Amino acid sequence: MTFKTLLEQYSFDEIAPAFKALWQWNAPKQAARLQLEDWRRIYQSLKETKTTPSHYYIRLGCRWESCTPMIDMNCSVYTKKGNSRCYPLSCHPLWAESIGMEIVVDKDVQISPVELTAGLLWEITYYGGTEAMSNENQKRIFKCNS
How far does CA 51 lie from the centroid of its chain? Predict the structure, then answer.
C-alpha cells in the first residue's frame, strides 16, 4: 500500500475527523483555527500528484498521538536496500516520491486506514502545505537550529 493508494481510496471528508483529532491532540491552540477548506485543497492537490519511483519506503512505528519524545520520529523514511532509517517523512523533500512510497506499519501499531491517511497528511505537511513551502520552512528552521 502507498500513500497514493490511500489518497485515492478516501475522500477528505472521510479523513477529516481523524485529521482534526490529530491537530487537537498535538497542537490544540492551532486546532482551534484549523481551516478545513484549505486542507481540503491541499488533500486534493496531493491526490492529483503523479508519483515518482523511490528507493525508499515509509515505516510507521507508532501512532502520532502517542509518539514521544518527538512526534515526527514515529513515521520515517527508510532505504529499501539495507532498511536503514534516513529521516522523518516530514523532512523528505520530494512529495511525488513520498506519495508513491510503500508503507510498512509495525505489527504492534493499531491504526485504521483512515487514521493512517490522516496521519500521513499531517506528516507530509508538517512544515508547510506545499512541497515548496515545506522545503523553504525546513531550510529556515534547520539553519537557525544548526
Answer: 15
